[in-house]
Design brief:
Four copies of one chain form a homotetramer.
Chain A: H1 4-7, E1 19-24, H2 40-55, E2 66-77, E3 86-94, E4 100-109, E5 117-127, H3 138-146
Antiparallel strand pairs in A: 1-3, 2-5, 3-4, 4-5
Chain lengths: ~150, ~150, ~150, ~150
């Protein structure tokens, strides 16, 4: 596995993201240390990505023939977040392949321009039954390109 | 953030790990897709690392003056895991710094020699009050070196 | 333990509640059956009650000398809720004792007047260190009475 | 909803239960207060009940034509539990109806004979597609009666 060093970028800012949604924190997101537990950030990432797909009509839960399998996730934590913070989540895409997409997500505390955490989420879209990769539809590919950012 | 490509190593096998513990899955670890949700893997990682530290007398919950802040986590998912699987978690260390450690964790299904998932977890040890880095104690450093593996 | 029968009331409606807040569901709130997992409802209850206390200045996380220990929780499930539903949570109080309160919470799907689920949450307020019951402050008692409903 | 008073029984002891399984706690089961969060107890209940059904061959995840809908859950908390405690969960049945069952679960800390928490879980078994109640099979009814305890 790669060292954390090469990944250790400066935090993103809000202008780096074309799409935002709001995450409501919950009391038990906080752990013993008084901050949101590291695993909980990934439930935010999941919700941001799937919320975007649902909003755009690209994901119908329970009726999907193509589902997004998660093959890699990463998160870097720069500054603490804690309930009852309200969080703005920025979303963008990178590396749109034949049947896979890398989503990048950054979490911003209200009033802060610098990400408190950021990471990625790699989806491979597969047939729900055979679990073999399905090429992205033209509609989905077009939409994902609208969120694309140069590397 | 780095591309997933350079990280895309082959799955580890059991012989790559000097320490194991067992993870019991729970009914609601499974999500809509019938497999353990990607975020839940990180609760396993947390439990493996902290369980090791508690077992070795290096972490007393509620009394700690030094706490491990998580600064980066990553997971790669190779094969599905699902409740009611029982999981063997392998643990090892890498990059033991002055006040930080990279833990590597791999999850093995019972009877499988190849990891279903693997990832890392970077802890920076800080003073509980000031949140400034604290150098690792000699006792802890010595123990972490016993789990070290060459890169 | 009492039979579920005596508790088996008809679902509440919105007019039964003096205070509401909104709950944002998350992708992994849904379980294998495609609905929000029964345990997750209690994380909503927790968030509604603590959110109310924080909003009213009665709970400062991390600085509290008096904390609310949960001694009993109950939930009845009438109709399914699922991500990505947005949920309105109604809150009211009953049985305001010397150092304890019973909160009643009902969850309404947007556009529905009848509760999809309802339950209670009994808090005993204790000293954070000694864990002995602390009488409710006059300020808190007065606020809780504003949410009170006749039985 | 009923007052907590009529429910306020003395904690059960181990001899009250014919079946036990072990629950492994996780680091992030603990919340801000240093104890297992009230909602997490229900994930234990879920796992105990479904684990029993799977062990006895009565539940095949992903292939079930009959599923257990949860219609009511309750938990009373007598004494704190916290990670890294190992927990013994006792299970018994009551009120075995045509298509419904009330399970009672109690959680015991290792070495303690008195329950730290106890509660119930009411399942109605329904057809997976129509969601209409399905009568319990003879096999299941027979098994549930083995766990029955007089009220």
């Amino acid at each position: 596995m790669a060292s954390p060093k090469p990944d250790a970028k400066a935090p993103y800012t809000r202008k780096d993201f074309p799409y935002f949604s709001t995450i409501q924190t919950r009391w038990n997101d906080n752990d013993l240390c008084g901050h949101i537990n590291n695993a909980v950030y990934y439930t935010y990432f999941d919700t941001v990505v799937n919320g975007f797909l649902i909003e755009k009509g690209l994901l119908q839960l329970g009726q999907a023939q193509t589902i997004g399998l998660v093959v890699e996730t990463l998160c870097q934590y720069f500054a603490p977040l804690a309930y009852p913070d309200s969080i703005d989540a920025g979303l963008r895409t990178r590396k749109i392949g034949t049947s896979s997409v890398t989503y990048e997500i950054a979490l911003f505390k209200k009033g802060c321009d610098t990400a408190a955490a950021q990471g990625h989420f790699v989806h491979v879209y597969v047939d729900e039954k055979t679990r073999k990769p399905n090429p992205l539809s033209n509609q989905m590919r077009s939409l994902l390109h609208q969120l694309e950012t140069p590397q």
